[in-house]
Amino acid sequence: MVSFSEMILRKAFRIDEGKVRMLNKIDYIMMPARAMAKMLQKIGEDFGKEFLFELGYKAGTDAANEFFEHFKLAGRAVPLKLNFLITLLQVLGFGRLDVKILNVKTNQALGYITKHPVIEAAKNLYGRKSMICAHYMGVYSVHADRELSIKGCKLTETRCVTKGDPYCEWSYNVFSKK
Amino acid sequence: MTYDPLKELIVKKAIAIEDNRIKLFHTIDYTLYPGRALAIILQQLGKKGGKKYLFGLGSIMGNDAIDEMEEYLKKVEKFVPDRIKTLQPILEISGFAKFDTIEYKDKDIIFKLTKHPVIDFGVKLFGKDSMVCEFYRAVFSAFCRKLLKSKNYELVENKCIRKGDPYCEWSYKNG
Fold first, then answer.
1. Is residue A85 a part of any domain in this protein?
2. Residues A24 and A68 in one domain
3. Total Cβ atoms within 10 A of residue A166
4. pLDDT score, position B93
5. pLDDT band at residue A56, thresholds of 50, 70 and 90?
6. Could you tell me if residue A43 is inside a domain?
7. Which of A52, A104, A121, A144 could form a disulfide with A134 if both were Cys (CB 3.0 to 4.6 A apart)?
């Protein structure tokens, strides 16, 4: 797996004029993780977890579209896309994904998420009252569908760092069949 | 040659990748958000809650970002060059904007911005209906209030690319 440092060295990411550009094609904005946690919590408190999930789903859909537009991911094998996705999610500050179950035939997925700077910030700020995981579950759900072929994926949470668990556990079609 | 605080900090390793995460001063965690996706969700939030709500979110973001920066800068005051601690570099290294110019005219401060990935996407996608600027107006206002220790509340928009202007311009009455 390629580390972010290596990606910088290989010029996959360039920091210039206040933004981060990936492979000269996709622009990213740097946002402080703690401030992001506060904003997402506010949105969750005002409009609910479902809305926060949908927002993440919408953002993830657009991001997936951008990847497909620019990097021609369609037609590539799932393991290749999985490696790309795991590396990318981590360098973006969307956490370290450890895939435990990924079965395209049975349409199941389960993963552990750790080292997510925004979720960690939310844990410190809000503890068990944190709602922000919903946003990232939305993001991950789209990518599981689009890049990993888990059709109709809408992840649900069974463990959470903000509740004292050692990792967030998100899954689709594992604990309840769809 | 224009001063580039981000590059200075990268060279000095004050912005570095640690454990595959971007950290400023080895302490402040950053996350990267795709500019286009961010424009889409900000617009969605504006539609859901209105412009004032979006402004409120920008205030939350801006206030906490500058608080975190100030908390840290106080601890390492001696090691951070003075030229970093002013408004323009702080806005840039916080990730929010690289302004073309910030002009000081008596008590007025005028901000001019021609390129911003999220604002630009907002205009591309939503045209004159884009509300993305409202979020950033709040972020910039928060930074001004804190760094300039001003009682005045918010920046005023003078020009905007969504209205067909060649650049975005905000002004701020300091005092």
1. yes
2. no
3. 9
4. 72
5. very high
6. yes
7. A52
